[in-house]
Design a protein that fits this description.
- The complex is a heterodimer.
- By secondary structure, chain A is an alpha/beta fold.
- Chain A is 30% helix and 20% strand.
- Chain A has a seven-stranded mixed sheet, sandwiched between helices.
- In chain A, helix 5 (150-160) links the parallel strand 4 (135-141) and strand 5 (161-172).
- The longest helix of chain A is centred in the first third of the chain and has 13 residues, at 20-32.
- Chain B contains nine helices and eight strands.
- A seven-stranded mixed sheet of chain B has the order 3-2-1-4-5-8-7, sandwiched between helices.
- Chain B is globular.
- Classes of the chains: A alpha/beta, B alpha/beta.
- At the A-B interface, helix 1, helix 2, strand 6, helix 6 and helix 7 of A face helix 1, helix 2, strand 6, helix 7 and helix 8 of B.
- Strand 6 of chain A pairs antiparallel with strand 6 (190-192) of chain B.
Chain lengths: 264, 259
Amino acid sequence: MPPISLRQRAIALAKLLLPARLRAAIVRQQRLHRLQWPRAGTVNFGALRRVSPISPIFGIDRGLPVDRYYIEQFLRKHAVDITGRCLELGDAYYIDKFGGGKPSRIDVLHYTAGSPDATIIADLTSADHIPSDTFDCIIFTQSLQMIYDFTAALRTLHRILKPGGVVLLTTHGISKIGRRLGRDDWGEYWHFTAQSIERVLVETFPNALIEVGTRGNVLTAVSYLHGLATEELTDHELNHLDPDYEVIVTARVQKAPQSGIVRT
Amino acid sequence: MSDSSVRDHALRLVRLVLPSRLRSAIVRQQRVHRLQWPRAGAVDFGDLRRLTPISPIFGIERGLPVDRYYIERFLREFAHDVRGHCLEIGDRYYTEMFGGQKVERSDVLHYLEGNPAASIVADLTSAAHIPSDSFDCIIFTQSLQVIYDFRAALRTLHRILRPDGVILITTHGISKVACLPEREGWGEYWHFTSQSLKRILAETFPRSRVEVKVWGNVLAATAFLHGIATEELTGAELEYGDPEFEMIVTARVQKASNG
């Protein structure tokens, strides 16, 4: 749990002690007499007083994008799971980076044909040609938001995972739109919350072990929207967790050790 | 559509003219030699270099929250639809604000029992007790994101709307998470994009006329995340529309005449 600030304590106390009507009246008086800190109208936005983002390409021209920092932090934490037969989308970048030689076989899945790295071409929402119970680990980063029928895709991932196998999933909560159908090969449909990810995974990975987490705070959310890079923030700023600001939602899902079918 | 900046035009041109390998090489050089503007590490955050939002309550103690600015702007545009028998969630605030004399009958729906303003208590995902073809107008603001089974809710809204009736929907695309089941009584599940909202409405409102629009830009989104109010931004700043920054997504949907 993140540390609770003095202001949060004061607000929690006010909610406990004061009736909603009185709280609303106080807020009204604050508005009327400009009793805010910083006072309304005096906030210094610095270089952020601009209607276009500082980097329109997520900050890859400036350093490591903020979302990548959180994704890599999550994958590093679960690097021990990246073992055996592994699958990643698009390329094998994270399997290579965090697998540490443990993977025995690497597959790369691509949605559209023509990618030289791809060993599997599939639309995960209908991918009967991928055999069941195949992978020990699936690295599934920043993809769920681009699949309209995400439930069908997650059911496929559950099916092709070996019993006891692990999916390492990340997706964004607060983000600009990165993909648009018509311009890119796929669209962008969902920004999930930890609450929806948890419920969706409970439905699609029956009896699995599910750990959902979030990363981010208001500063890293604003930095990410502007395309400011990790190197422009301090470690303390990056690692402060404010559960209201879900920049990245992560999930480690371990398929139930025994599948429905028992082979003798 | 938004105005496109010179930079956006230049980027589009670069994408058209230069192969992606060369573009990556340029970006790499920018990173290595810090060829950015403002230079990486030199960005002045002003008062925004802080880990907590300026207002933890969406800026209601500072003025009109930025999401409300866009919601009201959208509703004002379609105020002529707020007429006849109206339904709103939670209270009749916008029915009164935009409907005025055009409203003949006003219902208020609440999810939980015990709200004195409510004339209907219902979970929209299973609300068989609300008669079909009842309402000329449904004002459905900032609610879709808190309903896990949003498709079932939209099917209900389609069913209870009269033929030719209009539903005015707003929901957020970029926001902090505001609702927790243990705190508000309901959770928060989805931040939609214009692309998902269009497809969902095409599925749940067959043959209906659907107009989806997006509102916001990076500054408006930053202000909203911090709880900085509308009055602290200029009209031009609020009105600049950047389609990559879908802070609020709105839809006007008119149910087909033949149901």
